[in-house]
Design brief:
The chain is built from 13 helices and two strands; from the N terminus they run E-H-H-H-E-H-H-H-H-H-H-H-H-H-H. The chain is mainly α. One of its GO terms (cellular component) is vacuolar membrane.
Length: 437
Amino acid sequence: MKEDETASVISTSDNSEKANAGNLKEEYISPDQARGNGGFLIAYFNVTCVVAGTGTLGLAKAFAEGGWLGMLILLLAYGMAVYSGIVLIRCLYYKPGERLTNFKAVGRAAFGRTGYAISAFLHFLNLFGCPALYLVLAAGNMKALTMHSNISLSHELWTIVIGTFLLIPSLILKTLHEVTVVSSIGAVCTMVAVFIIMIESPIYYAQHPEHTVIRHTVIWSGFPSALSTIAFSFGGNNTYPHVEHALRNPQQWSYALTAGLTTCTLLYFMTSVPAYFTFGVDSQSPIYNSLPVGPGQIIAIVVMTIHVILAIPIYTTSFSLELETSLRLNEHRLGKVGAWCARAAIRTLTMCGLCIIAIVTPFFDDFMGLLGAVSNCGLVFLLPIICYLKLTGLKNKSWYELGFCLLTIVMGLTGLVFGSIAAIRNLARDFATKRPY
């Protein structure tokens, strides 16, 4: 999740932006204006719920593509994600006495319209791409769960059924205040899946000593693909300004972020290491497809299906809310009925678009790699660091901080460029070979 999925704290405050968000004055507020009353634990759980999600399902496959080097990449990405999240919040306060409102405003403050366009593109790509990926996973899971029943449907039909079902809450809910509890349920589901994989993998290894497991120390050709999957696992930066603004004491942000990302990283190691050790290069994404058929695999599939089904309306409503705000589709202009009709039209079109993408691109692992490379490498490793250096300058930084910034940017560019190329090639191969899904 990445997995991210407390988009409930994510985009609700974006609602308050006026339609003419291009006006810089509207992107600055007083640092203490309408701050939340949340404490350290609230911020910690928000970060954990935003970040820890479906990324856990792909990391063993990332190790299979990059070898045990993936452990080092994961640790590096963890440190870079912590630093990126801290400096992103510093960017919000770069102007004394004022605070930028959101991720897109940081891009504008640093690089004007170009910065705003790039940050908005990455932000919306994340908000639109994640639910499409989750639809792929949910449809595939439902197909697997009902394969031997009387209601066995194709992947395409399950995508349409789930999309239609999830359109209902999107039409009923005007904002995201009503679904805050969803994020905590998603986090619990993720943890259940993590513990199942962590326990089932070594049991399978012990029960099948006859199986030859192939593992590699490093596979340089698979480095970009592994990096893009790992980048997806740390996505969430575009939500941090809203999580931090909900803190009563903003000085606690760096501690809450570090604790949250540390928890996520521990969960990642708890799944990826035993799974890769057990299945080696045969590790699949989602990893529970590698588990032996039985109660453990079924429970893992069920809880992750619940997780993504609960997360999809949060993302789609967040995306629609920002679009509605930009187009000024409000009750003041259109009246209550007109605003609802406009909202229903946008959210229906959004869900239709997601279903089309999920049907056309049903390959979860390579879709995740592409989304991680294009969206999350920019959101996590590139834009926050570059904007931070632009807004606060270079001369007040130590040489080792600048060196770490450079390393982070190089990692981000590597994942963005070569990870995208690898993901596109993999998807092209999937379509050419008509790979089963």
